[in-house]
Amino acid sequence: MNPGRGLITPAAGKLLPVAALMVNAFVWGVSWWPFRLLQAQGLHPLWTTAIIYTLSVGAISLWRPAAWKELATQPSLWLIVIGAGTTNSTFNWGVTFGDVVRVVLLFYLVPVWTALMARWILNEPITAAAVWRIAAGLAGAAIVLWPADGAFDASAGPGFPDLLGILGGLSFAFNNVMLRRLSARSQAARALAMFFGGALVSALVASSMAASGRMAWPATLDTSWMLFAGVVGVAFLGANLALQYGVTRLPANVTSVVMLTEVLFASGSAALLGAASLTPQLLIGGGLIVGAALMASLSPRPATASPHESR
Hints:
The chain is mainly α. Helix content is 74%, strand content 0%. Residues 1-9, 151-156 and 302-309 have low confidence and may be disordered.
C-alpha cells in the first residue's frame, strides 16, 4: 500500500469541485461585460436576463418536466420565483449601468440581510457573531457609499445602480431563507422556480417599463449579436451545472469561501476594462463587506443556504 496515497487522494479529489466553483464565480464575476455589450446594441439587461433564463427553463423542462406540476401545485415555491427573479434582474441591471465593484460589493451584504430575515422568518436567534457580521457589513457599506469628497448629502442618497445592488442582495437573502424553509420540495422544482423567476420577473419589469415609455423594446439585432446572446445563455447554464457539481462534493463553508472569488473576478475585470475605480475607500469598505461574508461562511452554523440553490 502506498502510505502517501491517503494524503494525496482527498486533496486531488477537491481540485475539480473547486475548479468548477471558480468557473461559476468567473462567469458571474465577468457577466457585466456581455451585458454591457448587448446593452450597447440596444438590448437592455432585463431583456437579456429574460432570454438567458428562458433558455435555462427550457433545459430544465426537458430534464425534469414533472417539476412544472410541483411548481403549479405548491404556491410557496412562488416566493422563490419572486426572490430569484428579483435577485437576477436587479444584479444584472446594476452591474450593466453602475460601477461594477460597488454594485457587487453592495450585493454581498447578503449575510447582514440573511441574519435578520432568518430571525424573522425562521425564528433563528441572532448570535453575538451575527451581530459582528452585521456591524462589519453595514460599516463597509457606509464606507463604500460615502462620497469621495467627504461631503455627504442625505437628500441625494445612493445612486440607482447602488440601490439595485442592495435590493439584489436583499432578495438574494430572502431567496436563501425561503430555500431553507422549503427544503422538502424537490431540487428540480426549486431550480425551475429560480430560473423561471429570472425569466418571468425580468420580462414583466421590462415589458411594463417599455409600455410606459421608460425603456425601449428590444431593438432589432443582427444574427451575430443574437448568437452572442445565445452563447451567454449557454455560459450561464454551464456555470450553474459547474456549481451543481462543485457544491455536492465540498462542505458548504468551503463552497461559500470559494464563491467569494466572484468579487475578485468582478473587481479585476472591471479595473482592467475601465468599468470601476479601485479607490482606497472602496477597498477598505469592500474588505469589511467581504470579511463579513467570510465570517458567515466559516461560522459553525451557516448563515445562508447552499449557493447552488441561491442564484
